[in-house]
Design a protein that fits this description.
Blueprint lengths: L2 E4 L3 H12 L4 E4 L7 H5 L3 E2 L3 H7 L2 E4 L4 H9 L13 E4 L6 H12 L3 E4 L2 E2 L2 H6 L2 E6 L2 H14 E8 L3 H27 L6 H9 L6 H14 L11 H17 L5 H18 L6 H10 L3
Parallel strand pairs: 1-2, 1-4, 2-3, 4-5, 5-6, 8-9
Antiparallel strand pairs: 7-8
Length: 296
Amino acid sequence: MHVGIAGIGKMGAAIGSRLLSLGMPVTVWNRTAERARPLLDTGAQWAESPKALAESVDVVITLLTNEAALDDVYGSSSGLLAGQVHDKVFIDMSTVRPAKPQEMARRAQAVQARFLECPVGGSVGPAKEGKLLGFVGGDAQDLQKVQALLDVMCRRVEHVGPHGAGATMKLAVNLPLMVYWQTLGEALSLVEPLGLDPQRVIDILSESSGGPNMLKVRGGMIAKTLSQQKSDQVTVNVATMRKDMQAMLDLGSATRKNLPLTALALQKFEAAAQSGLDAKDCSELLVWWLTQGGRA
């Protein structure tokens, strides 16, 4: 199966690397060609446009920043759906509101293409190892066509319903983690007067009953950030977290669900963004809270 990838950010690059390591033919497209250089150097082919990408492969995976990017990459005159794409399968892994994959499915159906959403749980490390958690929304028959592909990218693939269901599940999975960043900052503020080494504090918290897997995986990076050992590495920036939390609140409003903790956490993250943290890694939220946000 020849796979196309549109959107070579951190996750797109990691997934591309995974597929290439398994000997699969991969063609890529990205607005900034230089971002795709590492994949091209390891065997990927380059497409000059999304349209050319879609016409040259069997299945297309998209990992895009937001809904506006989806509109452009799929719907422009040189977009993915602009060429001969009859019966081809498009799999979008972006994190968006549930209404968007429903809309994209209708667009794909209009040109006789097939569309699945499969937002994933997990970051760059699991993506490189094929250990993501996939939440599929769409037609079961379409899923059968690409099940083998998803299985080499994900440790678990869950078909959770029609288009929009995958996005709903992804937002639900992310919600406790988003709120946890705020609660972690507050917890750190309580132990700050003890003057303990940040690595020791993170180790203790990660071993506690309330320590999520994220703290075990990213604890080292968090401890370095708290120790003022700055790094330019960005796994998830604050802007992305704010976007996803707003999508959670929009979904709650649309389904008449009240999400008070999410709303409050978003207020704090927005204050951090106004202090210049939007492009920073989410671990910087903890430093911001200890130095500015959490002062009574």
